[in-house]
Amino acid sequence: MLQEIERVLIGRDEIAERVGEIAERLAADLKRELEAEGSSEREHRVVLVPIMTGSIVFVADLIRRLPMKLSMGLVTVSSYAGETMESKGAHLRGDLPEGLEGKHVVLVDDILDSGNTLYLVRSLVQERSPASVRVVVLLDKKERRVMPIEPDYAGFEIPDEFVVGYGLDYNGYYRNLPDIATLNPDATAGAGSGGGGGAAV
To answer: Residue 115 above 60 pLDDT?
Structure first.
């Protein structure tokens, strides 16, 4: 698998440091908001909603850095299928987590690309009357944005390149790479053009 990697874009140590910084900011902001409304950090008011399966590694590291009572409800969105790097649009697979009314909801995804996925999920969550909705992404690919959505917290802004690793895949593979990397042309031969990094989201 390593011979299929063209270059490492973001190394594992840099990722770990940045995830810690995001967690620190997010925890401070949530604590401040809970205190402002008279709630305790021990109350069940915070719900993390990871978008599967790309965010699985990111959310696993992030959640262990958040020193507060919270729950987690998963949501799955399909963005593309098969050997292609082009978005086919976002479609929710299954239901949103229950009990989001009055909660502080934190949407977590691996990458914000076109914005189709997170715009869809955020809109559906907002219909449930949460106390707040925040968007946390590891990677922000601003060049490909088509929907009016920006992250509240982003790890790294990256260029318009297809990336894998740290949960992001190509055709189902490479999620287990500890770094974020690009693939050499032979690994993606026959694929469509463009690039999302696991999915064009």
So the answer is: yes
